[in-house]
Amino acid sequence: MISAAKNSLLILFFMAALFPSCRHNDFYADNIKALDSLSGAVNALVKEDLKTDTVILAKAISRLEQYKQFIQQNVKDTLTKIEADFLQQFYASGNSLQSFELNRRLVKARVNLINSQIDKLKHDASAKVISEEKLNEFTNTEKKEANRLIEAGHNQQQLFYTNLQEFKTALKGVEELIKARNNGQLPTIIKDTLSL
User: Fold this and answer.
1) How many helices, marked H, and strands, marked E, lie in the chain?
2) Which residues neighbour 175 within 8 Å (Cβ) at sequence distance 6 or greater?
3) Can you tell me the distance from the alpha carbon of 98 to that of 103, in angstroms, rounded to the nearest whole number?
4) How far is CA 130 from the centre of its chain?
5) Which pTM does this prediction carry?
6) Best exposed site among 35, 78, 83, 112 by fewest CB in 10 Å?
7) Do 93 and 166 meet the contact criterion of CB atoms below 8 Å apart?
8) For the packed helices 81-127 and 132-180, what is the interaxial angle rounded to 10 degrees?
């Protein structure tokens, strides 16, 4: 009877010693899975960005710069309210498209940084060279940063489509303004490009 009790205690002792180790391994494995999911979410932002029509964006920015230069050099008289409204919308949406192009590059750089940090954290978790407390802390930090980046990326995409539509709408009015002051012609640099 005593021997059976000793065996039971011995088994309980080994199980107690084993369970923290299993929990310890599960903690690292769970964090690695969470980091993999986080990496997938961040990379989905990159895939979404790849859908951006960069040709249209480049054409819009080019038109903005060329038309802006023409207007500054050739439009000296008073504008009608409708012309001024089109011009204001053209500049505002065009400047936003330029900002979008810059922000795209910044978002890509940030994605690369977050991905490298996630990879390093996954490596450290796999090798178990980081304490649970630090792994948890760093994983939560990366989640917060990734969520901020994803939200900013989605907002940028929405702004892109909204501003592109506004730009196209204003473009017609601005082209009429230019033609009215340029013998019915658009500047020759623009004339041969594809329409937006």
Assistant:
1) 5, 0
2) 67, 186
3) 9
4) 30
5) 0.74
6) 78
7) yes
8) 160
Task: Provide the residue type at 14 as one letter.
Answer: F
Which residue in the block uniquely carries the two structure tokens 């489509």? 161
- Which residue has 């501003």 as its token pair? 163
Q: For residue 129, give both structure tokens.
A: 């060279």
Backbone region of residue 28 per phi and psi (left: phi > 0; alpha: psi in -120 to 50; beta: other values):
alpha
Residues across the chain: 196
d(CA 74, CA 18): 82
CA distances 90 to 12, 47, 67, 167, Å, are 76, 29, 10, 5
- List the pLDDT tens digit at each of the 196 positions of the chain: 444 444 443 343 444 444 444 445 588 999 899 999 999 999 998 888 888 899 999 999 999 999 999 999 888 888 889 999 999 999 999 999 999 999 999 999 999 999 999 999 999 999 999 999 999 999 999 999 999 999 999 999 999 999 999 999 999 999 999 998 888 888 876 544 556 6
Query: How buried is residue 9: exposed, middle or buried, by Cβ count under 10 Å (0-12/13-18/19+)?
Result: exposed
